[in-house]
Amino acid sequence: MSFRHIWAVTRKEFNHIYRDKSTLFLVLFTPTLILLLMAYALTVDLKHIPIAVLDLDRSQTSQKFIQQITAGQDLDLYTISNKMSEIDSMMMNGEIKAAVIIAPNFSADLIALKGLSIQVIIDGTEPQGGNFAVQHITQRAEQFIDTALSNQLSAQGFVLDTLQPLDVRVQTWFNPDLKDRNALIPGLLSMVLGFPALSVALTLAHEREHGTLEQLLATPVTRSELLLGKILPYILVGLINVILIPLLSLAWFHISFNGNFLLFFGLSALFMFAVLSMGMIIGVFMKSQAAALALSFLLIFFPGFFLTGIFFPLASMPEEARMESMFLPGTHYAIITRGVFLPGVGLDVLWPYALMLIILGLAYSGVAVLFFKKKLG
Length: 377
Prior knowledge:
The chain is α/β, with parallel strands linked by helices and 377 residues long. The protein is built from 16 helices and 5 strands. Helix content is 67%, strand content 9%.
């Protein structure tokens, strides 16, 4: 074995890594990026769950109770409402994940030692956040009762533990059985339907790797026409899955579909456009299929798995992670799929997410066309 021969091959490989910027990026920065992503995603502590309160008592006691349950960073008080219709609207729009209903006789019952009964409504489309809200509200309500009644009960010779004055009645909307898969499977559509983006990145890298891109550009086809022609077949094939996957969810997993299918189909087309445009950017920059495959998983699938709210509520993520998630088409599509499948909301609720998909699709495709011209011009 010759050390000189080994060193010659090693030096050649170092030169290849240095000259191929995509390989240099993947080798040098990928571990750091994955560590940051995993650290943000897997160390999420549930907090900042938005809730609303319907205060029908409107007393000083109820105000103190509201302050008690929203103290700290666990629950964020979105609003104190006066009408049940407002709670309905906020829950349908996804603005809140739980609501607390305070009865008109709240303070009177507390003073009369009749116990404390509260109703908590949770959004079943995110079972994690809803369950966390119920547990936190129950714990804080027990602390409130202990503080409010301890002196009064002690003077009358009662023991607080024997009275068990707290009665929390939980009502789950959109997912009555609170099954995780009812919320998980619609959210996972944003991942499984994103796989054609990998194919777009690989096919562009394959064309570049084998030198056929230059042959295509020698034809009258412009660069923007070439890129558009590349992604259209994948959009159409992906839309076939948009038909098949809901049928599978209904027949096999027994997931309810309560929305308008045509709306779902149209919004899915927007998602396909946006995520395939991300794939185009990767294909434009990567010179080899191996590099395109690695970068696709790094920029599309890893963030799509952890940062789109499928497994962890977006409200509980650090601000930096939430900002990054807004640039992922899967974040907006996961909200759309859950909204269409479970509550069955319409475009009046989903239009902001549809608009974001259009903006992201146009932005990513514009960047792809711009750098495609520069790199092959």
